[in-house]
Amino acid sequence: MNVLIVSALERIAPRIRIQKETLEKEGYGVRVFSQRRILWGWKSFIAFPGYYLQIIKAAIGNDIDVVELTHLAHIVVSPILKLLGKIIVYDAYDRYSVDITERYFHQKLKKTVRTLIELFENFFVKFFIDAMFTVSTRDEYLSKRYLRYCRIVEVLYNVPPMRLLYDGDIPTKFAGKPLKLVYAGGFHAEKGLTTLRALALELMKKAFHYELHLVGTFRDDEKRNRFVEELKLSGVSGSVFLDGYMDYPDLVRFLHKCHVGLSLYTKIKRYEVVGVGFSRKNFTYMASGMVVITSNIGQGGDSIRSADCGYVVDDPENVDEIISIIEKLYQDRALAGSIALNGINAVRKRYNWEVEGTKFISVYKSLLT
Q: Are 182 and 104 within one domain?
C-alpha cells in the first residue's frame, strides 16, 4: 500500500516525519508532498487552484492508495480524490476555527465566522473523510466534535520518539556550568517575545552565569533586526544567542546540552483551548533532560504538573517570578537535575511516540483491511 502525505509546510515537520517513519517500518510506501506553506491571504487564495492540481497529480501519478491531508485548506480536494478511488485521512493539526477567527477577524464577526468554518469542515469530514487524527484540545472537545461526522478519530499527542531521550548523566549535565536557558519556536508576541526581551534585561542584572538561547525564526527580517538592535543597545547581547532555525533532530541534540526550556505562551483564546498533549515544545524539553517553565493556559501545563518536571506560571509576563525560578535552579543544581530527570521518566512512561504510534498505525491498518 502506498501513502501520500500532503504537508502544509515547505519542509517536513516533526509530526509528518515520524508518521512517515512509522508507516515505512510497517511496509507502506510513503511519499511526502511539500510544495508550499499554507498561509491565509489573497495571494494564497489565488494560488490554491494550481496547488490543488499539483496535489491531484501527485495522488494519480504515484500509485497512491491513501492520501493524508494535513490542513483545513487541503480538504477542498477530497471530493476529487474520492472520485479517483483514494482513501482519505485528515490530520487536523490545528484548532482552525479558533486560530483563524482570533488572528484575522474583528470581535463582532468572530462567532459567526467560527461557526461557518466549522460547518465547512464538518461537511467535508462527513462526506469525504475516511479517518481522522487531531491534536489534543481542552477536554478533547475537538475529537468529540469530529466523532459526530467521522467514525474513526484518534487524538495524537505531539510527543518525541524514545530514541531522542537524553541518556547522559543528569548530575554531570547540571553541575558547574553556566545555566543554559532556551526558547525554541517561532518568535512573536503570542509566544512570549515581549517576555523574552524583558527576561534578557532582568537576567543581565543578576550575578549568576547564564546563557539565553533563542532557537527559531522571526516572521520577517525587520522584526528580527529590530530585536537584535534592542539587545545590543541594552548591553545583553553577549549572553543572548539567536541560534536561528534548526531541523528537529539538530534541535534535540542542541537541547541535550541545555538546562531550562521556556514556553511562555500569552493568555489568548487560541491557547486557552490547548489540551494535555498539545505542546511538542514542552515534551521535547522533557525528553532532552531539561526543566520546563511554561504558562498556565489551557491544559498545556497539566503534564508538567503531573510529572513534577518544571514550573507552571499563572502570569507568563511576570518576569520577576520567572527570574526567581531561574535563580533557584541556578543555586540548587541537584534540585534542577531531579526535576529534569522526572521529565525524562514521564516521556519514557507515557509521553512518547511509541505510545502514540500504536494508535496511529492501528487507524491505517483498520482502513486497509
A: no
Q: CA-CA distances (angstroms) from residue 124 to 7, 9, 88, 129?
A: 19, 22, 11, 7
Mark whether 152 and 6 lie in a shared domain.
Answer: yes
CB-based contacts of 36, cutoff 8 Å, min separation 6? 10, 47, 51
DSSP letter, residue 177:
S
- For 330-348, write each residue's pLDDT tens digit: 999 999 999 999 999 999 9
Residue 162 in this model has a pLDDT that exceeds 90: yes
| For residues 32-41, average pLDDT | 74
Entry pTM = 0.92
Residue labelled with grid coordinates 511576570: 318
| Domain count of the fold of the chain | 2
- Per-residue pLDDT of 76-120, as tens digits, reads 999 999 999 999 999 998 888 888 888 878 889 989 999 999 999
Bridge partners, residue 312, by sequence: 294
Clarify whether residues 115 and 180 are in a common domain. Answer: no
Q: For residues 310 and 301, give the distance between their C-alpha atoms in angstroms, rounded to a whole number.
A: 9
* pLDDT tens digits for range 115-149: 999 999 999 999 999 999 999 999 999 999 999 99
- Cell numbers 547522559 correspond to 168
Whether residues 150 and 267 fall in one domain: no
Q: Count CA within 13 A, CB hemisphere, residue 20.
A: 15
- Rounded to the nearest 10°, the torsion over CA 122, 127, 130, 133 is -10
CB 361 within 8 A of CB 22: yes
48 burial class (0-12, 13-18, 19+ CB within 10 angstroms)? middle
Residues 176 and 141 in one domain: no
**357 and 315 within one domain:** no
